[in-house]
Sequence to fold (127 residues):
Amino acid sequence: MDALLDAARAARDNAHAPFSGFTVGAALEDAAGRIHTGCNVENATYGLTLCAERVAVFKAISEGARNFRRIAVVADTERLTPPCGACRQILWEFCGNVPVLLGNLQGSTETLQLADLFPRPFDASLL
Ligand code: THU
Fold:
C-alpha cells in the first residue's frame, strides 16, 4: 500500500467518533514530501464535527505548509469513502485538482481526481 494511504490508516486510529462510530483517517502530502495527517473529531452538538480531511488541511496550513500534491482517505467501508461536500470545497481551495486516494482496511484502493469529484467549483478566481 502507498505510504500516504498507510499514514491515513494510522491517523484513523486517533479518530474521536463516539456518536457515529464511523472513524476516518486522512493524510495530505505537501510539495516537500511531508505528510500531514488528520482524523475526524466529533462533538456532542454533532454540527461542530470536523472531518478527517479538513483536520489534515487545517493542521498543515497552521504549520506553514502550502502546495499540496495528494490526499489519502481511509475508512472501514467496503465501498470506498470519498470526502464529503464540505471537504471537497476546502480541498479544492487549498489543494486544487489533486489526486484523491481512497482506501479501506481490506486493502482496496482507488485514485480519483478532485475535479471529477467536485466539478465547476466556486473559488477565489470568481471573486
Ligand atoms: N467523515 C469524515 O471524517 N470524512 C469523510 O470523508 C466522511 C465523513 C466523518 C464525519 C463524521 O465524524 C463521521 O465520519 C460520520 O459522518
